[in-house]
Amino acid sequence: MYRYFLKPVFFLFQPETIHHLVFRWLRILFALPAIQSIVSAVYTVRNKKLEVNILGLTFPNPVGLAAGFDKDAKLFNELSAFGFGFIEIGTLTPKGQPGNDKPRMFRLPQDQALINRMGFNNAGVDAAAERLKNRKTKMIIGGNIGKNKATPNENAMADYEYCFEKLFDFVDYFVVNVSSPNTPNLRELQEKEPLTKLLSRLKELNQSKKTPKPILLKIAPDLSNEQLDDIIDIVLTTKIDGVVATNTTISRGGLHTTSAELQKIGNGGLSGKPLSMRSTEVIKYLSVRSNQAFPIIASGGIHTAEDAIEKIKAGASLVQVYTGFVYEGPAIASNICKGLLSL
Ligand SMILES: Cc1cc2nc3c(=O)[nH]c(=O)nc-3n(C[C@H](O)[C@H](O)[C@H](O)COP(=O)(O)O)c2cc1C
What we know:
This protein is α/β, with parallel strands linked by helices. It has helices spanning 2-10, 15-30, 35-43, 76-79, 125-133, 156-167, 192-207, 225-238, 259-265, 276-289, 305-314, 323-328, 332-341, and strands spanning 52-54, 57-59, 63-65, 86-92, 105-108, 113-116, 140-145, 173-177, 215-219, 242-245, 269-272, 296-299, 318-321. The chain is 40% helix and 16% strand. Helix 7 (192-207) packs parallel to helix 8 (225-238), helix 10 runs parallel beside helix 11 and helix 11 packs across helix 13 (332-341).
């Protein structure tokens, strides 16, 4: 149904336009009585064997929706019916900001990929926190936090602290995003000194709470092995809880899309199938070099159960999808769960 009917229609629209239209349609559809339960009955695979206990949380299955899809926490109640084991909202910043000029999201159908340079477009963390207060779902929700474009890196800490405090009561875990390629200089915060300072401060804030929440770090796939060694060191010394590997890549290697098309698209982070191999490599490196010292959430090119299994074999405890949701459709989580059960 999705592949042969909905996807060809959706792909006639600009990617961002259809994203917002689908959000609107789902909100109208889910206002009808019983729709949430019907959709949930169709797409949710319930089986104890799928449960994952990490980070002090029990995930009903290991397939999550990655950050960026529901940036403003507008649709997590409805999206929870599509069989995900968890949903990550954000990236949220202290103040609302428009993001980069449009168009800023592009499909690469020959590669089952996307390129985006959204630039943390969001309505600000306060608005999202208000919506999260009315959370109807028991779904595990992660809060992905970042800094405003206008905030210089020297003051970035205050932005992350603000978002952390605002979301603390409403999310189950945090992801510190310093790896988006679309906010100028953000990735410099992945360097050892600023990152250690940032994570130590968040950890300190966290420890001052009655019940601290897990904090994970989301990293870029474009880090060198030396930088990955630093990441392991930082995770162990700051004692944060884990890593999300990986965000989108600035690389354009091995694509079927022509260089003329790529040039027309311009800058941005590449996601989907072409990211899969590098993302698996990063997971394997972190897992082996750290001796599995911390949990890893895999993100990058997971479209099928085979892709998820590859990531789990490389050392991931959970997986997340974004581009796969666009190409495979609403049954992606349930298809991956069924594949995992048939092992
Ligand atoms: C349009 C778009 C927007 C994204 N926005 C965010 C974001 O705000 N924060 C973030 O941490 N990752 C963001 N991502 C990255 C995804 O969460 C994910 O890590 C990445 O796309 C790789 O997974 P995939 O190949 O399954 O898409 C975005 C990805 C896309 C395609």
